[in-house]
Amino acid sequence: MGWLVAAREQITEDQARDAVTWVSDSLGIKHDDLVQAAGFIGHPDAPNLTLNEGIEHYGGNLITFTLYMVMLCGGLVATVGDGDPDWLKQFDLTA
């Protein structure tokens, strides 16, 4: 999730939209379900949820919530990072 929050500071709203659309179209995930989690990447249509509220939206299931976070990372890699997973490394936490 740190990657998503850090990426939010560097991507545009349009790029956040593109990432959600890519995941929805490529993986067949309901767009509205993705938008609920996409506030963490700055999607303009997403609610501004806390971590706990985000988890609650997915039935309180941490695994489901985490899966949506991983899918959003994949969407960002595909659309903003030109398919290069190393693109995410710029958002690694440093000590």
Key phrases:
5 helices
Secondary-structure map with pairings?
Elements: H1 2-8, H2 13-27, H3 31-37, H4 51-57, H5 62-79
Helix pairs in contact: 2-5
Overview of the molecule:
The chain is mostly helical and 95 residues long. Helix content is 57%, strand content 0%. It contains five helices and no strands. The protein has helices at residues 2-8, 13-27, 31-37, 51-57, 62-79. Helix 2 crosses helix 5. The longest helix has 18 residues, at 62-79. The radius of gyration is 12 Å and the shape is globular.
Please work out how many helical segments DSSP would assign.
Answer: 5
The low-confidence parts are none
What is the straight-line distance between the termini? Answer: 17 Å
**Helix and strand run:** HHHHH
Rg for CA atoms? 12 Å
Give me a quick take on this structure.
It contains five helices and no strands. It is mainly α and 95 residues long. The mean pLDDT is 90.
